[in-house]
Amino acid sequence: MILRAAVPSDVPALVELIEELAAYEREPDAVEVDAAMLSDALFAEAPVVFATVADDGGAVVGTAIHFRNFSTWTGRVGIYLEDLYVRPGHRGRGIGRALLAHLARTARDRGYARVDWSVLDWNEPALAFYRSIGARPMTGWTGYRLDGDALAVLAQEGQGVTGVPADGAGRGGVPEGGGGGGLRS
């Protein structure tokens, strides 16, 4: 088994892994991404997301899909782990730990402050695994999401506001720390 940066031919397997993870997380119908969308996000001139894959004899058996974030408190870039998934038949071999260790090494080597992620509160195997590697829960914080109709309604309030969009587009297309350069190793 080797870890490597995802390549375009991995995209169909990555979509399958995303779908398997969504099914495990009891949200099988929530996946909207398709191969074209994921490929565009991963392999654009300025990628917005990155994927490290666990390759076992040419088969993608696990992945860590991640992007860069920024902490105003530390003044440094970090990594946000969106998805960590290893196919059930390949668990117990240290693949998930190796994927996280790779992200930790990347963060350390690049001077990033940390690696963050979210986990469902009922996912006891994941919670135990994360505790075993020294990760700690962010108690006192509640995650929020704005999407769908609520996003559209609030966005309507922002119409007529002029200046640079919130994502920094117009300053060379990619906000500082937002996508260029990547985490491919």
CATH homologous superfamily annotation = Gcn5-related N-acetyltransferase (GNAT)
Q: How far apart lie the N and C ends?
A: 16 Å
Rg is 17 Å
Category by helix and strand content: alpha+beta
**Fraction of residues in helix:** 25-40%
Major sheet characteristics: 5 strands, mixed
Task: Describe what you observe in this structure.
This protein is α+β, with helices and mostly antiparallel strands and 185 residues long. It has one domain (2-157): Aminopeptidase, CATH 3.40.630. The chain is 31% helix and 21% strand. The chain has helices spanning 11-24, 35-43, 95-109, 124-132, 148-157, and strands at 2-5, 50-56, 59-71, 76-86, 115-117. Strands 1-2-3-4-5 form a five-stranded mixed beta sheet. A hairpin with a 4-residue loop joins strand 3 and strand 4 (76-86). Helix 1 packs across helix 2. It is globular. The two termini are 16 Å apart. Residues 172-185 have low confidence and may be disordered.
Which terms would index this structure?
185 residues; alpha+beta; Aminopeptidase; 31% helix; globular; disordered C terminus
Summarize the structure.
The chain is α+β, with helices and mostly antiparallel strands.
List the helices and strands and how they pair.
Blueprint: E1 2-5, H1 11-24, H2 35-43, E2 50-56, E3 59-71, E4 76-86, H3 95-109, E5 115-117, H4 124-132, H5 148-157
